[in-house]
Amino acid sequence: MRQLHASSLMSLDGVVQDPGGFGETDQGGWALPYFDEEAVRDSMAALAAADTFLCGRVTYELLSRAWSGNTGPYPDMINAMPKLVASKTLSEPLTWNATVIDGDPVEHLTALKQRPGKDIVMYGSPTLMHTLMQHDLVDTFKVTLMPLVLGSGSRLFLDGAVPKTLDLVETKPLRSGAVMLTYRRGSAPA
C-alpha cells in the first residue's frame, strides 16, 4: 500500500506559514537560512520515492507561482511530478502538471493509496492535512523544526485537531541548527 508523507517546515512555536518567502507574510522566508544542502538532499530523496505530489489550493498557488519556472535538480524533480490539488474553488485546466481532485479528497486519497505506485508526498497544506488526519490517512509526518520563534502565523496543527499518538522514528539534526523529526502514526490512540 502506498504511503502518504506530510512534510512541513516549522518554527519552534508551531508556525508553518510562508517558510519559503512566497509573499504570504511580512516575515516570509524564515526557513531559508536553515534549509541547507543536507535538507535539500533529504527532500530530493523523499521526492524520488514518490510519484504524486499532493497539496491544498493555497500551497498549490504559492508553489506553482514560485517554482514552475525554476530549473535545477530539485525544481526539475518537483516540476515533473504529477500533482493533485484539493480545492473546492479551482477548476481545470491547471498549470504545473496539476489536476484538481474530483470529488471528496478523503475518498480520492483512500482509493489512491490502495492503487499500485510510489508514495505520495505533501508539503504544508495544514487545512488539508487536518482533514486527512481526521480520517487516519497520513502515514508519516516529517517536521523540520527551525530554531526560531515567529510569534504569529498559521500553525501546523489546527485548533480542533483529532488527538493522535505519533511514534518518533527518526531524529536528524542539521548543521544549520534545524532538526528533522519523522513521526509515524502511533500504535495506540491518544
Descriptive report:
InterPro entries: DHFR-like_dom_sf, RibDG_C, Riboflavin_Biosynth_HTPR. Residues 5-178 form the Bacterial bifunctional deaminase-reductase C-terminal domain. It comes from Labedaea rhizosphaerae. GO terms for molecular function: 5-amino-6-(5-phosphoribosylamino)uracil reductase activity. This protein has 190 residues and is an alpha/beta fold. The chain has one domain: Dihydrofolate Reductase, subunit A (3-Layer(aba) Sandwich), CATH 3.40.430.10. Helices cover 26% and strands 26% of the residues. It has helices at 37-48, 57-67, 73-80, 105-114, 126-134; strands at residues 4-11, 50-56, 83-86, 98-100, 119-123, 140-146, 166-173, 179-185. Strand 7 and strand 8 (179-185) form a beta hairpin. The longest helix has 12 residues, at 37-48. It is globular.
Protein topology:
Elements: E1 4-11, H1 37-48, E2 50-56, H2 57-67, H3 73-80, E3 83-86, E4 98-100, H4 105-114, E5 119-123, H5 126-134, E6 140-146, E7 166-173, E8 179-185
Parallel strand pairs: 1-5, 1-6, 2-3, 2-5, 3-4
Antiparallel strand pairs: 6-8, 7-8
